[in-house]
Amino acid sequence: MSAGQTDTRRHDGPPADDLVGIGFGPANLALAIAIEEHNAHRGGARALRATFTERQGDFGWHQGMLLAGATMQVSFLKDLATMRDPGSRFTFLRYLHEQGRLADFINQKSFFPTRIEFHDYLRWCAAMVAERVRYGQEVHAIRAPETEGPVDTLEVLTRPAGAPGDESILRAHNVVVGTGLRPRIPEGLSTGPHVWHSRDLLFRAGSLGDRPHRRFAVVGSGQSAAEAAEFLHREFPDAEVCAVFTRYGYSPADDSPFANRIFDPAAVDDFYSAPDEVKQSLLDYHANTNYSVVDAELIEQLYRTVYQEKVAGAERLRILNTTALEAVEDLDHGVRLVVRRLITSQTETLDCDAVVLATGYQPSDPRELLGPLADECLTDGRGRLRIGRDHRLATSPRVRAGIYVQGSAAQHSHGITSSLLSTLAVRAGELCDALLLDRAERDPEDGTARREIAADDDIAVPA
Ligand code: FDA
Questions:
Q1: Is 61 in the pocket of ligand 1 (CB under 6 A)?
Q2: Could you say which of 83, 143, 386, 411 would form a disulfide bridge with 418 (CB–CB 3.0 to 4.6 Å)?
Q3: How many domains does the chain have?
Q4: What is the pLDDT of residues 275-297, one digit of tens each?
């Protein structure tokens, strides 16, 4: 824009926030907690102003998979606060205490709460920071206020999710993109009344009408696939459930103690500083801690079911291993699957009431929201985002506002734990520190605060 031209984007509203967080899943909820605790203990002039946007109407964590009895795959001690501050009022233990269930939980002698209970804990946390969150608002773009010159603030454009409504603009010196994963649907397929992604399992199964075929199929061999097969077999006792996958059998998740260290906060430092080829080896070696694997206990349970049905001569849970999905066709009241046995090449047709695609998730790329700003993000030789240890995207010098990412977009730089819960509490503290440093650097009056932050929080202040 040349000098003197009118900038139609100029904003005369209130001063920009320190942060707009995009998406309010566990990752940005953990950050909201870290900020809340910082503001409560050391707030005053150093309080951070933060707003979060979430497209769901209320807090919800993978609600379509909150299956009765399904347990967490991470210790309750890796909640949203304990690993950073065991004395926090946002710990799972504090939640249990307030619910009057602390002793009962201890008597279970388990580190792994049910997902339903952990979801309730997350909602309990979310309720305590609710005034910071704009629910039902989807972010569709992040842009610079000006098309030229330094970018010191960002504009986050939101509109009501799934409903007509006015766009609003939030302004901030920093954004943290925590939009999570999106369902992976095999090429050529789309979801519909009888073709579901596992993400929607409970919603779809609960509203299923006629079931003329008395059969379901579940495609996939990971944790969600095994859980979906077990759920459908349990909930629909008159139905056959076909588990379709190309492996020979379900493989167990490696949750042994040495391998589990890959989820420690220190492992993020190790991973971040490792050479590229070592990073790739670590991802490959330890993929079986998380990807395409199933809890050993659930594997045992499914095997017992298959065997007992064989003994009884009524096989309702069918494991179609080394089998690939060839085609999916809509029927009037259901769906027809054609599957191919990989060893014999024989095909089989399965008319089903519904097929569940437990085919996993794919990362969402923050550049999709960034429009022209995406061109200002620096990438490595493989087109991947360059991300600082503090989770900030490296950008051209023009962009002085901070764009931070949480989640799988940082798996190549920060390791396997990026999309998981394990290090959220510690990462949230790191992000909070980065925002405080940014604030101190923006405010020339804040030199004292800048030194205090470094001394208090044991973090490096750039010269
Ligand atoms: P998450 O996907 O949870 O949240 C992102 C949020 O952003 C969503 O609420 C979404 O609506 C919102 N959003 C997206 N785009 C938006 C936009 N444009 N505007 C506004 N809002 C937007 N991990 C683990 O460590 N232990 C476990 O036990 C499990 N269990 C588990 C079970 C199941 C069924 C699944 C599918 C996954 C897990 N996981 C897990 C992994 C899971 O990724 C992790 O638990 C968290 O969901 C990661 O939190 P995030 O906040 O990063 O993403």
A1: yes
A2: 411
A3: 2
A4: 999 999 999 999 999 999 999 99
